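Quarterly update from the structural biology core.
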Amino acid sequence: MQGLTTDQIILLTIAGLTILGLLTSRFTPDVVAVLSLLALGITGVIPVEDALAGFSRPAVMTIIGLFIITSTLERTGVVQWIAGRLARLAGNSEGRVMTVLMVAGALLSLLMNTIAAGAVLLPAAVQVAHGAGVRTSKILLPLAFGTLLGGMSTLLTTSNIIVSGILQAQGAPALTMLDFLPVGMLTTLMGVGYMLLLGKRWLPAHESAVREALPRPNLLDTYRLAERLWEVRILPDSPLVGCRLVETTIGAQYGTTVIAIWHGQAAIIPPGPDDVISADDILLILGREERVRALESLQTTMGRNGRYKAVMQGFPVQLTEVVIGPRSAAIGQTLKQLRFRSKFGLTSVGIWREGRSYLTDVGDFALRAGDAILMVGPDRSIETLAQEPGYIIPDYQPPTDKPTHKAPWAIGITVLVLLLSIFRLLPTAEAMLAGAVGLILTGCLTAEEAYQAIEWRVVVLIAGLAPLGTALVTTGLTEQIGALLTGVVHTIGPLTVLALFYLATVLLSQGVGGQVAALIIGPIAVNAAIAVGMNPVPIGVAVAMACSCAFLTPIAHPVNILMMGPGGYTARDFFRVGLGMLSRSQDSLGPG
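Predicted structure, tokenized:
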């Protein structure tokens, strides 16, 4: 391999810093992508127009159309109806529940975004698990893997669309559904078989804190937090007398949570920010002893007399779990900033994150995707929150899963789009955009709802990182890699080269996700294959499928993060179960 030019050195430096930025998560991925784009343009590695050309790529248009179509299938109730029917097939045995949910996840992922498929099936899976007496930790991780396996089997996965665009840009034919479906279906069958025969042995038998708690009859037992529940009596000379709860700053200053207030024999559960504290009131406070004891300086007394137990039983409130969706607007904000308590009437008690519960300073946590927030409140408040986008309530069952009157239009247009794409009657990008416009014209959703359906951060991420692939080609770096591989191909064979690209993509995907891995490895693999005279399509398919092998870490794919809180999983659970799943997916590729 000849020496590197100045542009190539700058390019490798920018690429390295980009990957480092994505791994460290100091900035959001879309911001890192824009910084990468700007760096390539400002340093002159590629012309400015090439740096901005990523926003006009067919892959970006395809993904925008896919977001709109997926959202419409959800809004019209089509996906929920399918999920409900599939869930009813699960029966009562653990193996059957696991099989049905994995297959359901794979089938839905054939037609829609993998994350959306997981989010729709999560509540159904929890309901099925409860009805069958199966722990959710035994079925949610298989569900996540099922959606990932389905993503391997379809063109309608972001990483697959990206690789298809890379092939087109180099003069190779675009990929179609038929390039993925045969191998993907075989991979899915092998994955389900592995989970039933071996993988289930390594699934944890525990639950998240709230899952273990749900059947309990009262809050004391439910939270299993007797050591952190305290009765604080307000003495007549306390400065808190006459203050509204929000004015006391008990939560903000002391990091505690007021769960209830007793005015004589009357209980307020949960109390609102404008509830006034009176002399001799008793506050039920959740917090560490040293934090609660600090309230004694405000003329209060603390203890545990157990007087509240009778009041708690039968009170019309319930404990629920709220999962922050992968692309929720709440990500990065705290519950205080969201004014969660005053807006929804729900009291936040704890956060379940990465296998651990946090019960202090709950309102000050910057929320992450997959966080499971333990909340208490009346049914009507939970129903209100369930309608908010970006929040998933696994235990909430909508009043009906009947599709709307627009469902036939949504189904018909979606099927038409797939047929146009599969038989190459229209380029996939044009078919997707035409389908999105058709859904708007038929009233399945409004133009405003269509804009809201688009995950703009994903669009910016893909368009921002696409110039890296362009730079790899224009600077001649892929040609040099191809020249280096020429001798290697003759020594180890083309199949081994394909396997090496597959492995490199799998490993990179575990840290930065499949979308980024496709944008980085895809151009190198495709152009290197062309340079050594190999057919680039098989390598493109292998790289695309490897991007969906997000089995080893929870951060490899948002659908893993989504299941982490409700299932009570740790990173170790994903690695332990996912290692065997990864080997099954590799086996399914076979020698050809």
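The longest strand covers residues 257-263.
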